[in-house]
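Can anyone check this?
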Amino acid sequence: LSALKELGIDLPMIQAEPKHHEKPADFDLRLQSQWHMPESYVKIDVLAYLLERCQTDQERERVKIEYDLFEKKNFTKVLQFLIYFVDTLRANNVVWGVGRGSSVASFCLFLIGVHKINPLLYNLDHREFLR
């Protein structure tokens, strides 16, 4: 704030934090219902989608473990959206990063194409991402 004052920048100050009467989980679910996503992606069976891309029993087991955690956190809608998002990037020849942070520990995100790091090759623990 002192730097703003020194520069003569006068911004309105927030007097109090806005009150939220909604639980964060309810807020997230309400906003997820407003995401734009074609009906074919809304109806996609994410688990089947992921398992179709597995080549070994080890990969299938990892998908089941991770998917279970995504379900417990109510993130399956997020996975549907990510499938749509990555498909849209590919269809429009958009380049995105190789991957960064704890998300590269998720084999499910690797299969969807969110990142290009196979966590099984590097023995990355999925719990680094899905805490």
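Reply from J.R.: I decoded it. The CA atoms of residues 55 and 120 lie 12 Å apart.
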